[in-house]
Amino acid sequence: MWGPLQALSRRRSVFHSEADFQFELATELRELGWTEIRLERPAPGQSGRIYVDIVARDPDGVRWAIELKYWTRKLELTLGDDVFELRDQSAHDLNRYAFCKDLARVQRLVAEGVAQRGRVIALTNDSAYWKPGRSEQCLDAAFRIHEGRELSGVLDWTRESGTTKGKGPLALSSPVALAWEDFCELDGKRGRFRLLDVRIPESAHPPG
User: Fold this and answer.
1) Which tens digit of pLDDT belongs to each residue from 129-172?
2) What pLDDT, in 10s, does the model give residues 20-65?
C-alpha cells in the first residue's frame, strides 16, 4: 500500500463521506512533509475548467494530481466517539465510468505537464467493484474495474441508455492494470474496506 494511505489507515479506518476522506488524506500528506497542498484545485480541461481533488508536492518536490472516490454500502457502527451511518450508494455503472474518466483525466494532466505524476484512488466496502460481474454484455462492461483487469484504449458503453446520455467514450493514453488491496477490516461483511490505487507515472513524452 502507498505510504500515505498506509499511514492514514492506521489513524482512520472509515470516513463519513468522500470529502472527509479527501481532507484526511490531505492532512496525512502534510504530516509526511508534502507541501503546496491544494484541494479542488482548478486545472485546464478539454471542455472548460476542471477541478482536481488534491494537488500537492511530495518531499522530493514532485507535483502530484490525485483524484479520490469513496463508494459505500449501508453500514452503521461506532468507533470511539464517532458514529458512522453510511448509506447504500447505487449507480455502480456511473461510478465505474467516473473512475475511468478520472484515469483518462489524470493521464492527460500528467502528459500536459500540469502535474508530474498522478494517482486515482477508490475506497469502498462494496464488493461489487472488486469482483467480476456475471455478464460481459452488461452496459458498463468496458468500465469494469474488478481485480486483475487491465484497461486500455477507448472505453465505451455496450449500448445507448438514458443513464449514459452525455457520457461519451473515454480514451486512455496507456494501459492501466488494476489491483485491489485491503484497507481495513471491521466487524461484519460490510466492514471490509478495499482500495484501488492506480499510479500514473511521469509522461515519457512531456509537452514541449
Assistant:
1) 999 977 667 899 999 999 999 999 999 999 888 788 899 999 99
2) 999 999 999 999 999 999 999 998 766 567 899 999 999 999 999 9
Q: What count of other Cβ atoms lies within 10 Å of the Cβ of residue 195?
A: 20
Report which DSSP code applies to 189: G
* Grid cell listed for 155: 472505453
Cut 0.85: pTM above it: yes
Q: How far apart are the first and last CA of the chain?
A: 34
Give the three cell numbers for residue 204.
515519457
C-alpha distances (whole Å) from 45 to each of 74, 99, 109, 119, 206 are 34, 16, 9, 17, 17
Find the length of the chain. Answer: 208
Q: What type of residue is 193?
A: F
CA–CA distance, 22 with 146 (Å, rounded to integer): 23
pLDDT value for 163? 83
Rg (CA), the chain: 17
How deeply is 77 buried, as exposed, middle or buried, from its count of CB atoms within 10 A (0-12, 13-18, 19+)? middle
Type of residue at 111: A
Question: What is the DSSP-derived secondary structure letter of residue 202?
Answer: P
